[in-house]
Automatic annotation (TrEMBL):
GO terms for cellular component: extracellular region. Residues 1-29 form the signal peptide. Keywords: Hydrolase, Lipid degradation, Lipid metabolism, Secreted, Signal. Belongs to the 'GDSL' lipolytic enzyme family. It comes from Solanum lycopersicum (Tomato). CDD domains: SGNH_plant_lipase_like. InterPro entries: GDSL (IPR001087), GDSL_esterase/lipase (IPR051238), SGNH_hydro_sf (IPR036514), SGNH_plant_lipase-like (IPR035669). It is found in: Secreted. The keyword Cell inner membrane does not apply. This is Uncharacterized protein.
Length: 713
């Protein structure tokens, strides 16, 4: 055998290791009813526009890249809280207190004011501003309006307890107070350590007031590297590049104490939750590794006057730089939209363990959102599928289809577990939405009473047809998974004492089935190994698959299953592997594959009607993974993605010719990639998948309804 043939076979081994693209994606379902924002010019969106203040930004070129032009935002475009609001699923940005009226306040209010600080005197040399205490007072007024709208205090308290409260103050207490001795005496009254203590004491008092007025979910945002701003460099740095360490060290003292009060408040207010966002270190990443984030200039403003464009801030109608996305800073003090997007995304979904403490905003949401209580909605959740949802069943069998090695699991709390992703799979997310405390165990390790909460039978390389994926070695086909379920049923009977009790228990559980991808990927479109493409037309093959699929569903039904979620096949023709192998430009999806997938999906959806008509004591729903995935491909930015045609980890064209190798270095910006490897989505995509499968965001997402309603049926 020649070297070329060895290489070709080795590549096939790695390239075909996967198993399905039953993708679903959250079209950013609104995760909380409202979002309240407290802060300074970093997040002010217009509260200073009509007050007597020098701290205003309601003129061009501020807002030059914002859809509505100058609004009072101190940036060329979006601020960090705009980005967070998008990721939280809000259709529009949170209105400023200055203009929020009527029922608009029910979605939240932005109270932030440029030049504001924790201390009342901070920023006074700039004229009027709304201090932290003033912003809290404005919030109290808003609470009274909420009471009037909702009818009584109990309803208002219940509503507000589900909202997010982000607080980002402290920067001006250094910039426009402590390090401005010509105007303020604080640097003579306190050393930096003492001053941080004083600030935190005053900050804590305001948090307590917010708590007394209904706030329960707090996001405390640390102070960034003020000593690295163009203004600090212009005033203090001999070379115009070295950050002012005396300022940064003082900032770190404050941040350390702010992180400390998160533990303190979490311990003393058990009905509230507090998290800390480490803006300082996120910003340090931008300074230390600018090219990794697309930046070229870190020490000068895109718009400004003097040394580093930092001695005078951006003047009215001044011409800013053209390459704004390459500048970390927009003006002497404030980041540009490009930097705000990075900070906002990492605040919402941490990319490093240090980004947020004890967890990020996204995890905050998974602890319970306003749509559901955290109560477990069904007694158990049984999962049938392929590598998209396998969580370890292939680990100890003779198979090439395994993912129990790094970098798989790099972002999962348990490390590499056999999940074919950097983190969670869609069913992990669905389990969270259903209220389960912890993930559903794989059949390979489920023991004793653990099976009462459900079992994951999914196996990488598995298909509806028994022969599917055989070139990869061992795998557990759909029929094998169903046989394993039958063994589990016997265990449930033994635990609960009799068959009637077991039947009554199992009929309340959710059964999700997501197979079919490998029957195309590792069967029909692999003519070197399988004859099916010569035996059947695509339409005939879809019919054969549905017939075999139906037989397994009937066996599940005969063994107690009554609530079925049938997940369609995703757009396999858009995977990095399909693009690498078949797409001339590396971006255009392979239509012959996708058309075949749609034939299967159409028949699967029709099967739902057939089974609902013929088994009245059971419920079947269909999840349109294909259509949801199409949303991601066509509108990636709406979901926070930048790269849709390449794997975060892989080898060759599109990182899709060979899948992720053991200990290979994946991309750093994993949350911006739709695909983790040549075939499988990232955790970021899976989170959207699970949520949109659980609660449909379009009428086409689920038929006749979604998983949240199936749980209640």
């Amino acid at each position: 055998m020649g070297a070329g043939e060895v290489k070709r076979r080795w590549i096939v081994v790695y390239v075909v290791v996967v198993l399905g693209l039953n993708l679903g994606v959250n079209v950013n379902a609104q995760q909380v009813p409202c979002y309240f924002i407290f802060g300074d010019s970093l997040v002010d969106n217009g509260n200073n526009n009509n007050i007597q203040s020098l701290a205003r930004a309601n003129y061009l070129p501020y807002g030059i890249d914002y859809p509505d032009g100058p609004t009072g935002r101190f940036s060329n475009g979006k601020t960090t809280v705009d980005v967070i609001a998008e990721l939280l699923g809000f259709d529009d940005y949170i209105p400023p207190y200055a203009s929020a009226r009527g029922e608009d306040i029910l979605k939240g209010v932005n109270f932030a004011s440029a030049a504001a600080g924790i201390r009342e005197e901070t920023g006074q040399q700039l004229g009027a501003r709304i201090t932290f205490g003033g912003q809290v007072n404005n919030y109290r007024n808003t609470v009274q309006q909420v009471v009037q709208i909702l009818g009584d205090e109990n309803s208002a308290a219940n509503y507000l307890s589900k909202c997010i409260y982000s607080i980002g103050l402290g920067s001006n207490d250094y910039l426009n107070n402590y390090f401005m001795p010509q105007y303020y005496s604080t640097s003579r009254q306190f050393n930096p350590d003492q001053y941080a203590d004083v600030l935190i004491q005053q900050y804590s008092q305001q948090l307590k007031t917010l708590y007394d007025y209904g706030a329960r979910k707090f996001v405390l945002i640390g102070v960034g590297q003020i000593g690295c701003s163009p203004n600090a460099l212009a005033q203090n740095s001999p070379d115009g590049r070295t950050c002012a360490e005396n300022i940064n060290n003082a900032n770190k003292l404050f941040n350390n104490r702010l992180k400390g009060i998160v533990d303190e408040f979490n311990g003393n207010t058990p009905d509230a939750k507090f998290i800390y966002i480490n803006a300082y270190d996120i910003f340090q990443d931008l300074i230390d590794n600018p090219s990794a984030f697309g930046f070229r200039v870190t020490n000068a403003g895109c718009c400004g006057v003097g040394r580093n464009n930092g001695q005078i801030t951006c003047l009215p109608l001044q011409n800013p730089c053209q390459n704004r996305d390459e500048y970390v800073f927009w003006d002497a003090f404030h980041p540009g939209e490009a930097a705000n997007i990075v900070v906002g995304r990492r605040s919402y979904r941490a990319e490093r363990s240090s980004d947020a403490y004890p967890f990020d905003i996204q995890r905050f949401m998974s602890l319970g959102d306003y749509y559901e209580t955290n109560a477990q909605q069904v007694p158990c959740y049984f999962i049938f599928g392929d590598s998209l949802v396998d969580n370890g069943n292939n680990n100890n069998i003779q198979s090439l289809a395994k993912a129990n090695y790094l970098p798989y699991g790099i972002d999962f709390s348990g490390g590499p577990t056999g999940r074919f992703s950097n983190g969670k799979t869609t069913v992990d997310v669905i389990a969270e939405q259903l209220g389960f405390n912890g993930n559903i165990p794989p059949y390979a390790t489920a023991r004793g009473r653990d099976v009462l909460r459900g079992v994951n039978y999914a196996s990488a390389a598995a298909g509806i047809r028994d022969e599917t994926g055989r070139q990869l070695g061992g795998r557990i086909s759909f029929s094998g998974q169903v046989n394993n379920y039958r063994n589990t049923v016997q265990q449930v009977v033994q635990i609960l004492g009799n068959e009637n009790a077991a039947a009554d228990y199992l009929k309340k559980c959710i059964y999700s089935v997501g197979l079919g991808s490998n029957d195309y990927l590792n069967n029909y479109f692999m003519p070197l190994y399988y004859p099916t493409s010569r035996q059947f037309t695509p339409d005939q093959y879809a019919t054969v698959l549905i017939q075999q699929y139906t037989q397994q569903l009937k066996i599940l039904y005969s063994n107690g299953a009554r609530k079925f979620a049938l997940i369609g096949v995703g757009q396999i023709g858009c995977s990095p592997n399909a693009l690498a192998q078949n797409s001339p430009d590396g971006r255009t999806c392979v239509q012959r594959i996708n058309v075949a997938n749609q034939l299967f999906n159409n028949k699967l959806k029709a099967l739902v009607d057939n089974l609902n008509g013929n088994t009245p004591d059971a419920k079947f729903i269909y999840i349109d993974a294909y259509g949801i995935f199409q949303d991601l491909i066509e509108n990636p930015a709406a979901f926070g993605f930048r790269v849709t045609n390449a794997g975060c980890c892989g080898v060759g064209r599109n990182n899709g010719q060979i899948t992720c190798l053991p200990f290979q270095r994946p991309c750093r910006n994993r949350n911006e990639y739709l695909f983790w490897d040549a075939f499988h989505p990232t955790e970021a995509a899976n989170i959207v998948v699970g949520r949109r499968s659980y609660r449909a965001q379009k009428s086409s997402d689920a038929y006749p309804y979604d998983i949240s309603r199936l749980a209640q049926a």
